Amino acid sequence: MEANYPLFQIIDKDGEVTSADYQDLLTEEQAKTYYYHMLRIRTYDHKGIALQRQGRIGTYVPFEGQEGSQVGSALALQNDDWLFPTYRDHGATLTFGADLNRMLLHWNGRIEGCVPSLEKNIFPASIPIATHLPHAAGAAMAETYKGTKNAAIAYFGDGATSEGDFHEGLNIASVFNAPVVFFNQNNGFAISLPVKKQMNSETIAQKAEAYGIPGKRVDGMDVFAVNFVVKEALERARNGEGPTLIEAVTWRFGAHTTADDPSKYRDQAASDATREERDPVLRLERFMKKQNMWDDAWVASIKEEIQEELDTAVSDMESYEKANSDVMFDYVFEKPAWTIEEQKKNFNALKGGMF
Amino acid sequence: MVQTMIKTKPLTLIQAINDGLKVMLTEDENTLILGEDIGKNGGVFRATVGLQEQFGEQRVVDTPLSEAGFVGAAVGMALNGLRPIVEIQFLGFIYPAFEQIATHVTRTRTRTMGHYSLPMVIRAPYGAGVRSPEIHSDSVEALFTHLPGIKVVCPSNAYDAKGLVIAAIEDPDPVMFLEPMRLYRGERNDVPEEKYTVEIGKGKRLQEGEDVSILAWGAMIPVALKAAEKMKKENISCDVIDLRTLYPLDRDIIAESVQKTGRAVIVHEAHATGGVGAEITSVINDTSFLYLRSPIERVTGFDVPIPLFALENNYLPTPERVVHSIKKVVEF
Ligand SMILES: Cc1ncc(C[n+]2csc(CCOP(=O)(O)OP(=O)(O)O)c2C)c(N)n1
What Å distances lie between residue B147 and A97, B117, B133, B157, CA to CA? Predict the structure, then answer.
């Protein structure tokens, strides 16, 4: 089965071009855009871990290693497309245009962080596994009904493919020919469970066959390849050719979350040892150096720019107005039910008197 | 004087559950545990730590990420002679399995006139107050007390946790076993090393009092006790009852307590509307209406999704809110 779903790659671990057919995609501008976004989300990711360790935010979900998948896919989207992320895909949402300040507020336990950027269709990160795949199908169907050429993309991990919602989402999307891309990041583990114990199939891509839609397998550490495959799938979707399932084979170098200890279930030293070969940022750097696209001064300037943006966002988060308890009551319904109005009133009366 | 020495060890609530599971895995080879990350990882909260090493991968099974799958598989196992215990990683992730629970776990005995029974336990950590991400804090015990055919148990300390988890595993019917996350690593209790059970369906009086009955369970027990402590300074004494089982409720202990004090304050962190507190109010109405000296008060979470952690302490009942309600019923 694996042979039917070969791993698509454009640039190998050494930065060499392996598929010459795609040469014209590999422009300096494109490479620099990818590099900037990958560096940006990696810097942010490291900061997230540091902030959690310093107790300045709550549990954080790192994605280091998955930058190629997240940036490559997010940059394939057009402005009015829909993005349905999980808790681990904040790299993709940031790249697509999510607001960095709000993102940080979310990690700080603030509901304000679930509100999407106004210019983009980004659903709040789905915490229950696989539940957003049917949403993506539905949003995509709505675009068809409205007669647009917009599409939707849903992100999910390898573990998600075991849930009923994964199968139901693919099935309904395929039956209705919805313009949606199901973008799987197979990062090898669902918390402690290695993918071999998650499923008995050799690839995730092959699961597409059961739903009569195309399945593609791509090297998730190769940002160019990911971008190409996702673009192609979105193109199909826009042309009325229906959904695609994409498996981006990637790796999460770090823990599942900052509350997780990976040494309990895997050899972290062995994982780190693969950085040299698998790191998507390093791979792009090697490619750029080989192609004479690398420019130290440019790299230094974007590093500084990214750091500045991040520092400002962190200080904005930390000086954000205090959480207001009214927020928890005020958005449950458009017109509040009497129960909630009464509870809010009593709570505020009590709070005024006692807390 | 003849005294049998019971050997005890100081355990946290989660260690006591681990201990109870170990006792049952050792005693009955038909028992097995299924769930996500419970084997090698020992569970995200370490409830099953060490058990796979000791009992092997067939008894402590790391399943795919598939709640409907492994709860449904547990149904098949239970009707075919095994005693499965499933771990749901957080109660808020039980929803994919809800269909299995509502349509099969709870009604197989009825549907087959007792031909098939489902001796299975569904364990799930629940509750707010540990700064978890969204959905991880749900406290939806009422969804299960509302379904006929499953018992619902919720311990608040290590001793009860071990005794109740063993009782749940031995119970011939399905039991929903709710574990208050916030109390997992709170205090330690002396827990007997040997096997013992705590009867399902029986509450426990934690503190004797005359003026008001406080009825609570799970993570609200420390809140209730703190409120009762504060009331002592004002010479109001509280009868504090840990209900421990939410279905079937211990009607006798509720009635006995309320008939003594004439006043009741129910504390739960779940949403108010349709919560178990409403059911307890009804039990009091049925058994003790003429003893009441004031309307029953409920101190609960609100009818809102449990907020992210910046506001979760606003959502959760506090000792101050309980004190306010105690004063209200006493001064009525
Ligand atoms: C329905 C449901 N069950 C359990 C969980 C707890 N949980 C959170 S992440 C996770 C593993 C997910 O693995 P995968 O889908 O591979 O995505 P990854 O986290 O590796 O990106 C689990 C079990 C959950 N969020 N939702």
Answer: 44, 16, 28, 26
pLDDT recorded at residue A245? 98
In this structure, are A306 and A338 located in the same domain? no
User: Which residues does chain A have within 8 Å of residue B311's beta carbon, measured at their own beta carbons?
Assistant: 109, 111, 323, 325, 327-328
Decide if B163 contacts B196 (C-beta within 8 A): yes
Is the same domain home to A196 and A85? Answer: yes
- Cα A135 to averaged position of ligand 1 atoms, centre (Å): 18
List residues bridging with A81 in a β-sheet.
none
Measured in Å, residue B9 CA sits from the centre of ligand 1 at 35
Query: Domain check: are A280 and A336 in the same one?
Result: no
Residues A300 and A334 in one domain: no
Look at A21-25, A280-284, B167-171 and tell me which has the smallest mean pLDDT: A21-25
Ligand 1 atom 12, closest CA: A190
CA–CA distance, A100 with A108 (Å, rounded to integer): 13
Residue B70 CA: distances (Å) to CA of A100, A228, A306, B110, B135: 38, 38, 45, 22, 20
Q: Is A128 in the pocket of ligand 1 (CB under 6 A)?
A: yes
Based on the fold, state whether residues A265 and A355 are members of the same structural domain: no
For B186-219, write each residue's pLDDT tens digit: 899 999 999 999 999 999 999 999 999 999 999 9
Range of the domain at A352: 324-355
Q: Are residues A34 and A165 in the same domain?
A: yes
The number of domains in chain A is 2
Which of A193, A201, A204, A331 to substitute to test the interface with B, most B CBs within 10 Å? Answer: A193
Same domain? For A269 and A343 the reply is no
Tell whether ligand 1 has an atom less than 6 A from the beta carbon of residue A125. no
Residue A243: is its pLDDT beyond 90? yes
3-state secondary structure A10-65: CECCCCCECCHHHHHHCCHHHHHHHHHHHHHHHHHHHHHHHHHHCCCCCCCCCCCC
The C-alpha of A323 sits at a distance from chain B's nearest C-alpha, in angstroms, of 6
Whether residues A331 and A315 fall in one domain: no
| Residue A77, domain CATH | 3.40.50.970
